Amino acid sequence: MNYATRMTNWKQRLSTRIAESFLLRAGKRLHHDRPDDLHLDGSLWRKFLANLYLILADYGRGEFPARRPPREQAFEEERTQYERIKFSNLQQILDDAMRKPWGDMRLFRQHTYELIRIVQTMERRGIKPPAKLLELGCGGGWLSEILAVRGYDVTGSTIGVVETQNSQRRIEALKVKGLQCALKFIASPMEEIHRQVPQGHFDAAFCYAALHHVFDWREALASADKCVKPGGWLFIFCEPSLLHTFICHRSAKIWRTQELGFRGRDLTNHLRKLGYDKIKVERPIWGEGLAAVFKRLLPFTVLAGSLVSREYWISAHKPG
After folding, report:
1. Preceding omega of 130 cis (within 30 degrees of 0)
2. What is the pLDDT of residues 20-62, one digit of tens each?
3. pTM of whole model > 0.85?
4. Which helix (DSSP H) or strand (DSSP E) does residue 223 occupy?
5. Which of 274, 261, 258, 202 is nearest to 233 (CA)?
6. What is the pLDDT of residues 185-200, one digit of tens each?
7. pLDDT of residue 288
8. Mean pLDDT throughout 269-290?
């Protein structure tokens, strides 16, 4: 047994002992008594304890950080994520997706800020209606719909077939309203999006808070690059830092999805490798006055009763 293996085993044994000690007795009880409860009565402290217990227990078992399954298995798990969730029925999940961003008042203000920032970021870089946009990982399609109403020609993509079918109702609703909008939805993994849409067709491609869920984010960005015109832009909106991997370990298990944060330099280095220039990285803080100053000193903030890592917002230009 080599030195590295001995050190790993020692750390795992220590991690298990701490997880099973009196120090985390409350966290263990919370997790095991309420294994599918994301909110734990809205208590930040209870969430912290349950998550810390699970991180240490899983590290001791060699299950943290989470290991990726084989590629096709990972794709299939993402496609069927909603159908496999135990704590809520599928129809309720799809209903919540259709109400987003207006349904959850705890997140309404945050989503509004982010929506405005997305539009302002693109339009300051010359991406204005009726530019052709490709959204990667659009989920329920709410952002694609709003951008289409604004006048963009939008293609939203997500891996889930059920989500894609549900999103078609947004198109039907716009027709009922008498709005002539260029909007469509397709089902595709991000890593294969260039096979599903015309290459070099879009003025911009963007991903909003979804890149950290994919099987291979480098492959996903390379695929998106093939879809962007020379002179176009690739945007990475609201992607979490490495701290997210720790903060969301328990919620990832409950949601049965991947929650892995990023190093900002890894994202920018890969964009440069793909040939992009004019790369700008921002880590915006929401709020005003002393609260905003304080938030800038920390790598995380609290949103809707949960810890949230500070996100990366990145703009990158594809030379013509």
Report:
1. yes
2. 999 999 999 999 999 999 999 989 999 999 999 999 999 999 9
3. yes
4. helix 217-227
5. 202
6. 999 999 999 999 999 9
7. 74
8. 92
Q: Which of 318, 242, 245, 232 is nearest to 275 (CA)?
A: 318
Average pLDDT, the chain: 93
Tally the C-alpha atoms within 13 A of residue 25's C-alpha that lie toward its C-beta.
Answer: 3
Residue spans in the chain of domains classed CATH 3.40.50.150: 90-241+262-317
DSSP 78-123: HHTHHHH-SSS-HHHHHHHHHHTTTS-HHHHHHHHHHHHHHHHHHH
Q: Which amino acid is present at 184?
A: K
Tell which CATH architecture fits domain 90-241+262-317. Answer: 3-Layer(aba) Sandwich (3.40)
DSSP for 18-76, please give it. HHHSGGGHHHHHHHHHSTT-SSGGG-HHHHHHHHHHHHHHHHHTT-SSPPPPPHHHHHH
